[in-house]
Amino acid sequence: MRIMPSWDSFQAKYPTKETQRARFEDLVRSLFCRRYNIKYGIFQYINHAGNETNTIRVGDEIIGFQAKYFNNEIDEQIIIDSITTAKRRNPEQTKIIIYTNLTFGNPPIGQRLTSKQKKIEDAANDNNITIEWSVDTMILDQVASVDWIYDVFFGTEPNLMSFLNEE
User: Fold this and answer.
1) Which residues have C-beta within 8 Å of that of residue 127, sequence separation ≥ 6?
2) Residue range 78-84: average pLDDT?
3) DSSP-assigned beta bridge partners for residue 97
4) Is 62 exposed, middle or buried (0-12, 13-18, 19+ CB in 10 A)?
5) Residue 132 and residue 96: Cα distance in Å, rounded?
6) Which of 42, 54, 137, 160 is the most exposed place for a label (fewest CB within 10 A)?
7) pLDDT computed for residue 163 by the predictor
């Protein structure tokens, strides 16, 4: 029986910051492609600027995405820079999905957003782009529903193929 995926198991499987960031980008690309039924992958360049891959058209929207893996807290300036670059390189882009393994803390009483989230949302509004957030447990819930994504990115239990390869 499988257990719910966790960022602890992800970090155990990918112990260095570099591999965590790289595999998180792979994970997010897989989730994005699955969501939009992109069966054969999506084009991207090395260090694709602004978005992780080329944008896609869905109805009237031009959508891109960013994968941001943080170790301690969300760095809003990194996300703001990505949004600004995405819009500059893709002027027709209307939406960006921000995937991050962390989430914001509670906003102050009477406010809808934390100060970091407000800065990011303001930057998106300034660039005429809508943000959709996919954070922390939202990502883990998506992973839990797809066996192969779970196995590749979170499965730490041995399986027959890895055992045979090790032998």
Assistant:
1) 83, 84, 87
2) 97
3) 65, 132
4) middle
5) 6
6) 160
7) 47
